[in-house]
Amino acid sequence: MAESRLALSLALSDNENTRPLLDGVVKAQGVDLFPTAVHPSEMFWRQLKFGDFDVSEMSMSSLTIATSQGPTPWVALPVFTSREFFHLRILVRADAGIAAPADLRGKRVGVPEYQQTAAIWGRGVLQHEFGVHAREIEWFMERTPDKSHGGSTAFAPPAGVTVNQIPATTNIGEMLVRGELDATLLYLTNPNLVDRSRINFSNDARVKPLFPDRAAEARRYYGKTGIYQINHTVVVRRSLLERHPWLALNLYSAFAAARAEVVNRARVGLRAFDELGMVDQATRDALARDPMIYGVKANRPVLETISQYVHEQGLTARRVALEELFAPSTMDL
Predict the structure, then answer these.
(1) What whole-number distance in Å separates Cα of residue 300 and Cα of residue 292?
(2) Cβ 230 vs Cβ 83: under 8 Å
(3) How remote is the C-alpha of 333 from its chain's centroid?
């Protein structure tokens, strides 16, 4: 008798790479997916603390930290739904005397959560590109233990690093306004159950980007390192893969099809402009190689770098191998 289709709960952030799955435009073979759109801050907290969903996006850093401590309930697929140059997110008070990364030494810097992937990328770039070590900064963390990813992975401040807990009665935004913080490594205002900041600094002269020409710094960094920083992967409940080993590749294929849908739409949208000579070569090259490509092989240097950064920043006792994170059947993708 043929095995019935699996019914799985699915949690994804709502972005262009995941929308074809959230909307049901792309489906997985042998699986009925019941999707929920959840902000990543809340999604990862719910997965790490309660295991709410069968399949979801997951913080690369929190998964790495949890895996370093022993087997987790989760197995990753080499699907990377969120990437960015996260050091470009650093904001500073205009009156704090911070004109360059080196000026962050000795300053009070906020971060939603010390162990989150975006923060690890930011500190990694500060250290390796600009010589500024986390020990030289006084950190202030917004998320409280009961609403943090680190609350489920036994987070403790790394040796030699000062991490202060921001009281639950305030947040990074309010502390920046009052001059109690000089900068923030990452600033999140999206409504969710975890993050508390709500002040919008988009057109506020009191706060400015550390890198005023973000595009120039992105070109410099990518040209030097070739790294497009990975933030999220996708995880599946381990017990499901143990019972249904075929599930890993079926789900991966669905995520890859969703990404292909996005890329194809972009290519079709640009075709008329390209025929008129209105698209530059850099854009053609980016679309030809897909900077958001999935799979272990194409992303191994980036994945090895985030594993290195998690370890060297004192958040794991050892460097976690990629084979410990990803489903064996996906390692050759």
Answers:
(1) 13
(2) yes
(3) 21
- pTM as predicted: 0.93
Nearest to residue 95, comparing CAs of 3, 206, 11, 223?
206
Phi, psi of 56, deg, nearest 5: -160, 165
Q: How do strand 162-165 and strand 138-141 relate by DSSP bridges?
A: parallel
Residue length of the chain: 333
Residue 80's φ and ψ, nearest 5 degrees, are -125, 90
Looking at CATH, the fold of the domain delimited by 6-84+229-330 is given as: D-Maltodextrin-Binding Protein; domain 2 (3.40.190)
pLDDT digits (tens, 9 = 90+) for 180-238: 999 999 999 999 999 999 999 999 999 999 999 999 999 999 999 999 999 999 999 99
**CA–CA dist 17, 260 (Å, integer):** 9
60-68 and 300-312 helices, crossing angle to 10°? 60
Residue at 222: amino acid letter:
Y
pLDDT range class, residue 1, cuts 50, 70, 90:
very low
Q: Which superfamily does CATH assign the domain made up of 86-223 to?
A: Periplasmic binding protein-like II (3.40.190.10)
Largest CA distance in the chain: 71
b/e code 35-47 from CB counts within 10 Å (16+ = b): beebbbbbbbbbb
Nearest CA among 154, 156, 194, 195 for reference residue 72: 154
The 10 Å CB-count burial string (b at 16+, else e) for 201-213 is: beeeeebbebbee
Give every CB contact of residue 285 below 8 A, 6+ residues apart in sequence. none
Assign 195 to helix, strand or coil: coil
Domain map (residue ranges) of the chain = 6-84+229-330, 86-223
Give pLDDT, residue 282.
73
The two tokens of residue 225 are: 């390192």
